[in-house]
Amino acid sequence: MFGVGLPEFTVIALVAVIVFGPDKLPEFARQAGRFLHRLKVFATGARDELRNELGPEFKDLELRDLDPRSIVRKHVMEAMEEAEAEAAAAKRRGSRPLSSGEAPPFDVEAT
Fold first, then answer.
1. How is the chain split into domains, by residue range?
2. Each residue of 18-38: pLDDT tens digit?
3. How far apart are CA 5 and CA 2, in angstroms?
4. Whole-structure pTM over 0.85, yes or no?
């Protein structure tokens, strides 16, 4: 979780005991837990409100879907799949890519 292992967590706990004292530490931990719970409720409410405002076509919207990196990744993957499908279809039709200097086929009656 966040790149924090057991040694780092032990140091953080030791510093917390020294800074807050052993008598105030349980109350501080309770307050931190309540804060994280409120933050989670707030984020869930914001997501649900966004879903309601956008309408039924976005009912399965997740906030991580709005991350620009995932949007770009999605479009790049779709483009790669389309290119692969197009290459496979061209292979089935028996067409081949033009070699260097070769003119494309030309149909006089089509123009």
1. 16-86
2. 888 888 888 888 998 999 999
3. 9
4. no
